[in-house]
Specification:
about 220 residues; alpha+beta; Glutaredoxin
Length: about 220
């Protein structure tokens, strides 16, 4: 049996385009099944939302302007609903806490459990306006999902979860990833990022699977 195509998938939990891309990820997994393996990673885009939104969007309306941008971005996509409260009444200070807790879940319960929990957190934020930047809210969600909260806190206190998160952030910087979401394929030879349509993803995956790795480059 041929080895599956590994795609390294980088997102920020607070990124609207990653939320919009969720349906495409589900289609990818449904269509390609065990022929494609998606490895989830995180990058630091909304680590400091006051700087990214409050300051960088100051001449475009600040948080209110960014809130309009998010609503306009999501409006064409029925499968990516967004609450009107986003960035108006609900303003997480950072995405890093969510990334950190997700790394903790991966360490104690496995990558698949962490991926499923990430989707639940995204829904909580984008659909229901839950501030997933706050640790106490994240801990409540961890407990509700039946994860061992004491064990999770041990991965935080030991630094293991932080080390895993820093490895993601470092890799994203070294790969010069420009935005969320980003797909890295074919051992780094192909990079797609942003609002990439499913047909584009499909075409790239199909081409890689059809062609042997040694034909990827003449150099």
């Amino acid at each position: 049996m041929d080895k599956p195509l590994v795609i390294d998938y980088y997102t920020d939990m607070l990124c609207i385009w990653a939320w919009i891309a969720q349906r495409r990820i589900e289609e990818l997994q449904e269509q390609w099944s065990d022929k494609v393996v998606l490895r989830h990673h995180y990058l630091n885009l909304f680590g400091d939302t006051e700087t990214r939104i409050g300051q960088q969007w100051a001449d475009r309306g600040g948080y209110e302007g960014f809130a309009r941008h998010v609503q306009e971005a999501a409006d064409p996509y029925d499968d990516a609903p967004v609450t009107d409260d986003l960035w108006l009444r609900v303003r997480p200070q950072t995405s890093a806490n969510a990334h950190l807790v997700l790394k903790s879940v991966a360490l104690m319960a496995g990558e698949k459990a962490s991926e499923q929990f990430a989707l639940q957190l995204r829904k909580a934020f984008f659909v229901h306006g839950v501030d997933i930047g706050q640790l106490h809210i994240l801990f409540e969600r961890v407990h509700e999902q039946g994860f061992d909260l004491d064990m999770l806190k041990q991965t935080l206190e030991s630094g293991a979860a932080m080390a895993a998160l820093m490895a993601d952030y470092k890799a994203a910087t070294e790969l010069n990833i420009k935005g969320s979401p980003t797909w890295i394929m074919n051992h780094g030879r192909q990079t797609l990022y942003g609002n990439v349509g499913y047909r584009v993803l499909h075409a790239n995956i199909e081409e890689i699977l059809k062609n042997p790795l040694h034909e990827a480059s003449w150099c």
